[in-house]
Amino acid sequence: MSIQTSHYEALLAEYSNSEAVITLLKQHRPYFEMVPSIRRSDDSLIPIPLPIVRLRHGISYSGQQGISIKAGDAVCLPCDIGILMCDPEWKVKIGPEIFIFIHRPQEEFSDLLTRWRLTQVWLDQEYEWIMPHHYKQIDSQEADDICPLFVLFPETSESIKRGLMGANLPFIIHSLDEIIDLSEYPTLDEIELEEYQEFGGEWG
User: Fold this and answer.
1) DSSP labels for 9-36?
2) CA triplet 69, 66, 106: central angle to 5 degrees?
3) Single pTM value for the model
4) What is the pLDDT of residues 108-125, one digit of tens each?
């Protein structure tokens, strides 16, 4: 079975949830040990799908994309999920930031690696997070360190796996059998819908 867009979309949706992120990080112990409190995962982790940051200084990057960003511009990072660590008591951002890169359909090793390299280039300066509405009170300043984690599938080519191993970049392999098609997810029940509306239709 080849990697389908629905597989990517299902994992993107799954890892937008803090409990699912805990399960993911358990597969890479060094990152799992960074979590401030496993029992209070909702207060310890903030997963942000397709995250946005504001760069305080302009940047010009002459790579394949020929990117030019002005000072103060907000940009969508080329990762899939950004994970921020928080002190569950003080509600402040702490520790490094983890960036998840899910293998996309038809993506080659150079494409996957370039997404991480661009993230490194853009965040190699002062920046601030454009925080989801529910987390506006959390400090949004940059971290001392940024860490990547790649999510591959059994069907991902061996060249990509070898390339990441050679570059000493951590990855985990997610079985396609464990992925539920997005069309099979249940709709919000009445209780969840009420909670959603209490936040003005904004979760994350």
Assistant:
1) HHHHHHTTSHHHHHHHHTTSHHHHTT-S
2) 110
3) 0.83
4) 999 999 999 999 988 988
Cα 94 to Cα 89: distance, rounded to the nearest angstrom: 12
Structure tokens at 34: 């960074």
Closest CA to 69 of 83, 56, 59, 54: 59
Tell me the per-residue pLDDT of 131-177, one tens digit each, with 9 for 90 and over. Answer: 888 887 787 777 779 999 999 999 899 999 999 999 999 999 998 77
| Number of residues written out for the chain | 204
Max CA distance (Å), the chain: 51
CA–CA separation, 124 and 72 (whole Å) = 15
| d(C-alpha 152, C-alpha 65), whole Å | 24
The DSSP bridge pattern shows strands 67-69 and 59-61 to be antiparallel
- Identify the residue with better confidence: 6 or 58: 6
157: CB partners within 8 A, 6+ apart: 109
42 three-class SS: helix
Residue of 132, 134, 100 lying closest to 119 (CA atoms): 100
Cα dihedral 3, 67, 70, 141 sign = positive
